[in-house]
Amino acid sequence: MDTRLLVEDFSAWYGQTQAVKNVTLPVYASQVTAIIGPSGCGKSTFIRCLNRLHEVIPGTRTRGRVLLDGQNIYDDKVDPAEIRRRVGMVFQKPNPFPTMSIFDNVAAGLRVHGLPPGTTAEEVVEKSLKMVGLWDEVADRLQDSGVSLSGGQQQRLCIARALAVEPEVLLMDEPCSALDPVSTLKIEELIKGLKEKYTIVIVTHNMHQAARVADYTAFFLNGQLIEYGVTSDIFTNPRDQRTEDYITGRFG
Amino acid sequence: MIAGRDQRRKFSNKLMLVLAAAATVLALLPLGSILLYVATKGLLALNWDFFTQLPKPVGEPGGGLANAIVGTLILVGLASVMGIPLGIMTGIYLAEFGRGRLAWLVRFTCDVMTGIPSIIVGIVVYGTIVVAMKRFSAIAGGVALAIIMLPLVTRTTEEMLKLVPNSLREASLALGASQWRTTYSIVLRSAMGGIITGSLLAVARVAGETAPLLFTALSSRYWHTGLDQRIASLPVYIYTYATTPYEEMHRLAWGAALVLVAMVLVTSIAARLAGRRAGGGR
Amino acid sequence: MQMPSPKSRRWGDSLFRGLTFLAALGMIGLVMVIAVQLIRGSQLAFTHFGLGFVTGSRWDPVHGAFGSLPLVYGTIVSSLIALLIAVPLSLGIAIYLAELAPHWVRTPVSFLVELLAAIPSVVYGLWGVFVLVPLVRTALEPFLQRTLGWLPFFQGTYYGFGMLAAGIILAIMIIPTISAVSREVLLAVPNSQREAMLALGATRWETIKMAVLPYGRSGILGAVILGLGRAIGETMAVTMVIGNRPQISPSVFELAQTIASIIANEFSEAFDELHLSALVMAGLVLFVVTLLLNILARLLVWRVARAPEGVTRE
Ligand SMILES: Nc1ncnc2c1ncn2[C@@H]1O[C@H](COP(=O)(O)OP(=O)(O)O)[C@@H](O)[C@H]1O
Ligand SMILES: [Mg+2]
């Protein structure tokens, strides 16, 4: 199986506090990888290191390498903006741009990167909205504000916005934690459909969700990667006692 | 997706970030220039006479602006005596009792008043006090400055009192203290630093006001003789001297500007220190 | 400490409450006095000129002509020049301080910008007369005429004094207001908005342009209107550099006059009832306009961020 992202001995800090400690982990292409662990264990920090978003917070630093298709994204010559285009991100709380219409929200990335050759903005927006299953719901009101949608729709709009610039990897940081069960289900279905084309890394503290959508699961504790493997192994047959404690504690 | 586009994006990114920093530098240039001119030209004008002598008539060299310095202190003192207590009382009303429509109206009025051009205050004080007294006076000037101070003091007081935790109030009330004693001794005391800061900033603000004095306190070439008489002030002297054709007066105007700016800045900085020391304020 | 008896305590409480209540009422009363006084004072001019006061284009006290159009024109144009200069600069400052500057730079630079607001208007005027005006006369006006002289705005004699100098000095004076309020507005923009744009692969500037500024746009508009309100009401510095001639000329090199500056100039020398009343009426116009602008600005700014005390107050 192809390795899309290879994290090598990676650490991240906020000032003096180290939030990610010497993590080494391969992320496989066209697979869904879940990151689980108790709150505060560094899941968000870790995933934000994969598109170099960690460094936009003042006072932070990192050490180690992250290889995207073999290229170290932390190399001096690399432009973080280009990495962020190739590695898209969806956040915990839906964050559409409130002053933009639904259409403009999806097209926001296109406005900075330009259109792929031979396409129009209308085509790309339609395609992206269809991919997230939002097209039928909003096709007749594309000019309405992005925040006029419901929470679940907003989150799918944000996914469409991320997909419109054709990333290779999609990072999702607890994308359903602010949503109702029905919307959550829709997004989980969506993730399963998207993995054909995209490599997905999803943070979740809901272990059922990890079990449902992920091919691979990584368990984090106190900033360390404790265990990583095929999802079913992690849940049925954990090798580490701490993983087992966490899983059984939660699964009750 | 096209190489040229990325180059352009990177370039405009750099350009705009540099422009933002340049704007900041550019905006600070006049500040530097003003402070430099006031300091150098002002220092040249300052001497013993400046602080002890009365202004000389046009054409005669020498003289000082002692009366204007005293006048400004008197005017600001008068304004403070009137404006600060009233402002604090109104602030207490807003913070402690102010709920409902009346409080909203007071707050709104207060905000509106801070936007009123100070020259308007001058017109109104002229139309009431000066016309009634049939003469320009220190009192009229003090009232005009007090009106400008009032909303500044009110809003800082309110903000500062609101920062005092409710638990303090409740603890005091639970001990059987009356409301006013609670406000007076507990709440006011813990907000004191912030209120002093706000009052000093208001003082600094009105010390340099000129427009409202032009037709209230007017100006005077002599020592202050009574609150019901017209009175000299530094800002008005700067204005009149700067607009005359005489070198000697320009020199004194710069000296007056230095003294005035020093007074304003010292007060502003003292205000901040007072706030910091007492733990309130900003 | 001796406890007061319950009765005297209740009495003390209501006295205290009553006093603060009176003070609060006094504030409202004060604004009413201001309004009434201005209206009463302008009655004579109003009965004399009616609406012609606003449309009349000749202000000539010697001949009893009091048309305020030149003053309104001077006020608007000088304020527009000020906005033209101050808005881009202030936005640059706000962006620099809120988005770009390293932390150790922010506090001292913010302090310096605030210092700009602490300098008295009359000192700006003094500096204007002796530093800015000569600079405008010998460098800026010749330069503008050479490069843009084909436009009607940049023609005529170089006085130094005039509309241009007034606009520049106003710009310097309103920069602290606009930049400080805009900075607060930008700081109130949630980080999730910035990160959303950054995560799409946008550069920092693209993030500011597409996510941060649009999010704060009504607050920034409020900041600009607040600055406009200050510019319109600003008196001393303008009076000292604008040349004080009530006329309407397309050229910004020309001498001009604003409502505030004519009041400062003529009020204490207006011995004629009608002249005095006309000046009060000009003041009334100024009062109403700044009132409306301030109300509008506050509504806009509050929608985004409560500006810190001491900033909107200037
Ligand atoms: N902006 C920040 N500044 C300082 N410390 C932070 C910041 N964000 C997170 N942390 C700390 O880093 C650790 C990991 O946080 P995070 O990655 O958000 O955990 P998770 O997403 O697993 O809940 C926590 O101890 C948290 O307190
Ligand atoms: Mg998290």
TrEMBL record, chain A:
Q: Which GO terms describe its biological process?
A: phosphate ion transmembrane transport
Q: Which Pfam families match?
A: ABC_tran (PF00005)
Q: What is its EC number?
A: 3.6.3.27
Q: Which residues form a coiled coil?
A: none
- Give the molecular function GO annotations: ATP binding; ATP hydrolysis activity; phosphate transmembrane transporter activity
Query: Known PROSITE patterns for this protein?
Result: ABC_TRANSPORTER_1 (PS00211), ABC_TRANSPORTER_2 (PS50893)
Out of the domains of life, which is the source? Bacteria
Q: Which UniProt keywords apply?
A: ATP-binding, Hydrolase, Nucleotide-binding, Transport
Query: Which positions fall inside the ABC transporter domain?
Result: 5-247
> What is one cellular component GO term in this UniProt entry?
membrane
Q: Which InterPro entries match?
A: AAA+_ATPase, ABC_transporter-like_ATP-bd, ABC_transporter-like_CS, P-loop_NTPase, PstB-like
Q: Which PANTHER family does its entry note?
A: ABC TRANSPORTER I FAMILY MEMBER 17
Kindly provide the name given to this protein in its UniProt entry: Phosphate import ATP-binding protein PstB 3
The lineage is:
Bacteria, Bacillati, Bacillota, Clostridia, Neomoorellales
Gene that produces this protein: pstB3_2
TrEMBL record, chain B:
Q: Per UniProt, what is the name of the gene that codes for the protein in this document?
A: pstA
SUPFAM superfamilies per the UniProt record, alphabetical: MetI-like (SSF161098)
Recorded hits in InterPro entries, A to Z, give: MetI-like (IPR000515), MetI-like_sf (IPR035906), Phosphate_PstA (IPR005672), Phosphate_transprt_permease (IPR051408)
- State a single Gene Ontology molecular function: phosphate transmembrane transporter activity
Q: How does it sit in the membrane?
A: Multi-pass membrane protein
Kindly report the protein's main subcellular placement as a broad class: membrane
Q: What is this protein called?
A: Phosphate transport system permease protein PstA
Record family assignment: Belongs to the binding-protein-dependent transport system permease family. CysTW subfamily.
Q: Does the UniProt entry include the keyword Cell membrane?
A: yes
Q: Where in the cell is it found?
A: Cell membrane
Q: Quick one: a GO cellular component term?
A: plasma membrane
UniProtKB/TrEMBL annotation, chain C:
Q: Which PROSITE patterns match?
A: ABC_TM1
**Family membership:** Belongs to the binding-protein-dependent transport system permease family. CysTW subfamily.
| One BP annotation, GO | phosphate ion transport
Task: Mark the transmembrane ranges.
Answer: 21-39, 71-97, 109-136, 156-175, 219-242, 274-296
Q: What does this protein do?
A: Part of the binding-protein-dependent transport system for phosphate; probably responsible for the translocation of the substrate across the membrane.
> What membrane topology does the UniProt entry give?
Multi-pass membrane protein
The organism encoding this protein is Moorella mulderi DSM 14980
Q: Which gene encodes it?
A: pstC
Q: What is the protein's given name?
A: Phosphate transport system permease protein
Ranked from the top, the taxonomy reads:
Bacteria, Bacillati, Bacillota, Clostridia, Neomoorellales
